[in-house]
Amino acid sequence: MVYQSFEDPLGGRLPQPGGQAAAPEGELLLSGGRVVDPKSGTDRTADLLLCGGRVKGIYEPGSCRGGRQLDCRGLIVAPGLIDMHIHLGDLFEVSTDPIRGAVADGMTTGLSPGAGNTILAPSLLGAEVDRGLPMNVGVYIGAPNLLANLLEDREIAAYYRGELSFERASEALSRNPIAIRTGMLAVGVKDHMAHFIMPDEEVERVFSITSAAGLIYMSHTQDPTHAERMARLSKGRPLHLAHATAAGCGTHADPVEGMRRVLELVDGEAVTAEFVSSMLRENGGCREGLIMPPAAKELALQALADRKVRILVSDGQNDATMKGFGDSRDNLPAIIELWQGGVLSLLDAVATMTWEPAKLLAERTGNSSLRDQLGNLQPGALANVTVMDPLAKRAVFTVVNGELAGFEGRALRSGYGAGGLLSRFGLSRRTGVGDLAIYS
Ligand SMILES: [Zn+2]
Ligand SMILES: [Zn+2]
What we know:
Blueprint: E1 27-37, E2 42-51, E3 54-59, E4 68-71, E5 76-79, E6 81-83, H1 97-104, E7 107-113, H2 121-132, E8 136-142, H3 143-146, H4 153-160, H5 166-172, H6 177-182, E9 188-191, H7 200-213, E10 216-220, H8 224-234, E11 239-242, H9 255-265, E12 271-276, H10 277-280, H11 294-305, E13 311-313, H12 331-340, H13 346-351, H14 355-365, H15 369-373, E14 385-389, E15 394-400, E16 403-407, E17 410-411, E18 421-423, E19 426-428, H16 433-439
Parallel strand pairs: 1-4, 1-5, 6-7, 7-8, 8-9, 9-10, 10-11, 11-12, 12-13
Antiparallel strand pairs: 1-2, 2-3, 5-14, 14-15, 15-16, 16-17, 18-19
Helix pairs in contact: 4-7, 8-9, 9-11
This protein binds zinc ion (ZN) (2 copies).
One zinc ion binds at residues 192, 220, 242-243.
């Protein structure tokens, strides 16, 4: 809010006795910031105008007037951060605290890979969306649960493409109609060597189903020998190595050797990888996760500089019981430090949590519209914006689907309800599941 005059900073918008508070206008103007949009290569001082939950455009500073205005001078205006690996309401943590924490940290979209998730997981998170979440959320299911039914593999793939009949699914997939209607909203599967080790035949089935259905195949990467096995079994089909920097922390092999062996598997095409932001921090990041020794960290930073690995994730949120290896509080600082430390340009650093995960989601799911809607500031994109203070390394404004959901490192209660459920089919602002108990 820019105060137009000292005498009347609210511009007459105070609620009048007996009247209604003025409704916020549809437009939101983010003025005077350094607008960084990796998709278009934009990096300049500009105004960003949002309207009706979408990006309207990037304009010369001062050239347009919006109804509401956020003063972004001295700040970086980036596409809303996407954390494609963050634990939100999965497995053990059933409160919405981690989601509130993540939006406070500037996340606008988070995908939760709970290895224990079943096909009922999208409905549970969907119910939370209906009851009001401040950010977009999505969910992976545990890899063995993809096979935990009586369907043939081609039918399982058809189900996740939304093409299996309800009748057939109710015979052989689940006896719960809500699970049947929503299970296909998972974005992918998580293979996790701590929870289960599947035989080769089952891994083969999971790869054949995920590649046919357009599901992300994410594998827990910590023991390089396990990652090598998964890469061998993938046979050229898509595989995403989760938190690959964990292999450089020395739990299952020498840290440098482990990091090197895992990086050798990454080709950037079929086999992609993500790094944990906390492990890349100059100060070592949060102290709850694994610590990566400097020599292994050098290899990881080089892989980022070489563009071999292009995605950062938190793999955790500080307020979650079920923590992964990191913390979403380290995401935005890691982006700033990769830029200021000369590892990446500002555009490429911002891309690690915006345009790069958006592209991977679109490629893996086969839904190219996700590339238009997420991780960029081009006209028509969902109005998700993270405004960063590069000095404080903090999210100043977090805009989720056009609504202000975070301010100065805090989630705004008024932003609850801004979020939606992100699936392979796109963003649903409401799933209807949360209304069932209320309206029967
Ligand atoms: Zn994992
Ligand atoms: Zn994880």
